[in-house]
DNA sequence: CGTCGACCTCC
DNA sequence: GAGGTCGAC
């Protein structure tokens, strides 16, 4: 048997072979390309047209979506092979469950009806996706509320729909964002790749690419790790990573980060800041993206520019640099504007400003089509009322100077 | 509380 | 300079 015959490939919905499961999920609730590509996670790649492959919950997944469904394929991990009989050895690839289930889905892809073999839904996989994408949060409703409170958001959100916060593993999230200081996305992705490749457990190989789990705290805490990561080009972040991991294990224990999910926002953020390499920005990222603090607003130079440029926000306008005080003021400003899910709204504006998504702004026709399709009489009436209301809403400029009514810091 | 320089590398 | 942090005035 040749190597090629056993080589697993990335699953593709339209090609057939691999078995898929799916769940109801519209594009206005989730856009995979924007949500996975906006810089909140560095672990997903587009491995095929609209197909995203990455590691989540210790498994390798490929995800894709059609108009009203989210499709997923989960690969078997390497180790799983040892416990399974030979017949299943080639099952990373096609047809593992086809004998058990003859069920098929008729799916429309690019005007073409395609037969997709369906897996028997495995216990827990759909639940993992619901948890990871926080699909129990109604994003359409949030967009509606943000748009009502903020005309600029309303404008942006016509194009940038379906951007939601992931609920990431706290260790992966925190240590990934320690890598982000003084850095840009493409290089960060490479660094996180290297971190996983050198310290994480290999999970499976697809088309010659090996996927690794994110390393454990104890793996990162090892004394040799700083030198190792410096050799890999992490620079001064190498020490931050190793020492933060070591400090967490020595001072708190392995479950401490996870436990911060039940700690109030400001308290959790303060705790994180005691770690080397973790300032306000990184702590807020970990809070928002992995610790269930939907009102955490990570403020970087980019968001600061947006606050000044698009909201005429006075906070920090006289400041030369992004100090902690400016950071807090901007965060308070957006919390007051958008409410308890301010961090989610922030990610939409952030995404809309990324260079790689600017081309989306040049295609207004798509949005018009959507409008036409969605304009049932009832919806149209509602929409009109909303727009009239919108005109009466004051520009956020004036809101900016209102005093934030938030609990005092610390 | 605000400003500055240093910290690593890559483009 | 880049999606920041730390320590020193």
CATH architecture of the largest domain: Orthogonal Bundle
Element-level helix/strand string: HEHEEEEHEEHHHHHEEHHHHHHHHHHHH
Low-confidence stretches: 84-101, 367-410
Number of helices: 20
> The CATH topology of the largest domain is what?
Endonuclease III, domain 1
Helix content: 40-55%
The Cα radius of gyration reads 23 Å
Sheet with the most strands, sense and barrel status: 5 strands, antiparallel
Instruction: Bin the strand percentage.
Output: 5-15%
User: Which term fits the overall shape?
Assistant: globular
Number-wise, the strands total 9
CATH superfamily of the largest domain: Hypothetical protein, domain 2
In CATH's first tier, which class of the largest domain applies? Mainly Alpha
What can you see in these coordinates?
The protein has 410 residues and is α+β, with helices and mostly antiparallel strands. It folds into 4 domains: 17-135, TATA-Binding Protein; 137-166 and 294-353, Helix-hairpin-Helix base-excision DNA repair enzymes (C-terminal) (Endonuclease Iii, domain 2, Orthogonal Bundle); 168-293, Hypothetical protein, domain 2 (Endonuclease III, domain 1, Orthogonal Bundle), CATH 1.10.340.30; 361-406. It has 20 helices and 9 strands. The strands form 3 sheets. It has a 5-stranded antiparallel beta sheet with strand order 1-5-4-3-2. The radius of gyration is 23 Å and the shape is globular. The structure holds a DNA duplex (11 and 9 nucleotides). This is N-glycosylase/DNA lyase. It is an enzyme of class 4 (lyase). Residues 179-347 form the HhH-GPD domain. Belongs to the type-1 OGG1 family.
């Amino acid at each position: 048997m040749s190597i090629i015959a056993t080589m697993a490939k990335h699953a593709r919905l339209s090609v057939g072979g691999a078995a898929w499961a799916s769940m109801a999920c519209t594009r206005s609730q989730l856009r995979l390309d924007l949500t996975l590509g906006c810089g909140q996670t560095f672990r997903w790649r587009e491995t095929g047209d609209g197909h995203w492959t990455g590691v989540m919950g210790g498994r390798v997944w490929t995800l894709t979506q059609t108009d009203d469904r989210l499709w997923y394929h989960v690969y078997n991990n390497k180790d799983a092979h040892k416990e399974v009989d030979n017949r299943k050895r080639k099952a990373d690839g096609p047809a593992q469950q086809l004998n058990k289930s003859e069920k098929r889905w008729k799916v429309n892809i690019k005007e073409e009806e395609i037969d997709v073999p369906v897996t028997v839904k495995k216990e827990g996989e759909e639940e993992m996706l619901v948890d990871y994408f926080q699909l129990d949060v109604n994003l359409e409703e949030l967009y509606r509320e943000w748009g009502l409170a903020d005309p600029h958001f309303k404008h942006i959100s016509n194009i940038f729909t379906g951007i939601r916060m992931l609920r990431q593993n706290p260790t992966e999230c925190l240590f990934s964002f320690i890598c982000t200081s003084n850095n840009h996305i493409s290089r960060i992705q490479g660094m996180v790749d290297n971190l996983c490749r050198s310290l994480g457990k290999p999970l499976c190989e697809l088309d010659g690419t090996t996927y690794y789990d994110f390393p454990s705290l104890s793996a990162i805490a090892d004394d040799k790790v700083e030198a190792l990561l410096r050799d890999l080009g992490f620079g001064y972040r190498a020490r931050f990573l190793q020492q933060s991991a070591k400090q967490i294990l020595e001072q708190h224990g392995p479950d401490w980060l996870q436990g911060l999910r039940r700690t109030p926002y400001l308290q959790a953020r303060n705790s994180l800041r005691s770690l080397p390499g973790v300032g306000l920005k990184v702590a807020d990222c970990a809070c928002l993206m992995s610790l269930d603090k939907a009102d955490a607003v990570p403020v970087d130079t980019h968001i600061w520019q947006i606050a000044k440029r698009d909201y005429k926000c006075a906070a920090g306008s006289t400041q030369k640099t992004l100090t902690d005080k400016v950071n807090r003021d901007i965060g308070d400003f957006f919390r007051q504007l958008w409410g308890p899910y301010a961090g989610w709204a922030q990610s939409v504006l952030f995404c809309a400003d990324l260079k790689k998504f600017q081309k989306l702004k040049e295609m207004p026709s798509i949005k018009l089509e959507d409008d036409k399709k969605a304009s049932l009489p009832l919806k149209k009436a509602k929409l009109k009322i909303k727009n009239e209301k919108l005109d009466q809403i004051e520009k956020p400029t004036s809101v900016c100077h209102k005093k934030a009514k938030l609990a005092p810091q610390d």
